[in-house]
# Entry
Amino acid sequence: MKLCDHTSVGILVRKGSSILLIERAQPPFGFAPPAGHVDDHGSYEQAAIAELAEEVGLTALHLSFLHEERLHNRCRRPNGTWHLWKIYEAIVEGEVRLSRREARRALWASPVQLRELAARSERYQRGLIGEREWNAKPGLEPIWVYLFGQLERQQSNDRR
# Structure
């Protein structure tokens, strides 16, 4: 298994007001936008393009940078205790074709569904939902509860 390179990229794909999420087939379980490590891709942008193609079969036509932050979050790789995250929004072409190795299913989540998934994640983190129930019906990956909150605050500040 590869060591963690401490670099993560996340990609938001929109359809109207909905955002594409995948239910992860590998830890950390939960719903999240397509995302992954930079690894051998060279740059964050190249990693974003590759992760979109690998996880959901979409071709990125344009990437817009949204957010960057160093976060303490575990990953399944050895030494993975923190990551420098860069988040992009992508204009894409193609139809969603899931990688069965990466994703159980896709969801075009409305703002209401995103809030419901985030609330479920918060209940899970407080111990109000057990592992078995979480695995059967997960919420957002915990790091994405935080990142969506940051993006929402950033967007609110940009409107002022």
In short: The first strand starts at residue 7 and ends at 15. DSSP finds four helices and seven strands in the chain. The beta strands are 7-15, 18-24, 31-32, 35-37, 59-71, 83-93, 103-109. The mean pLDDT is 92.
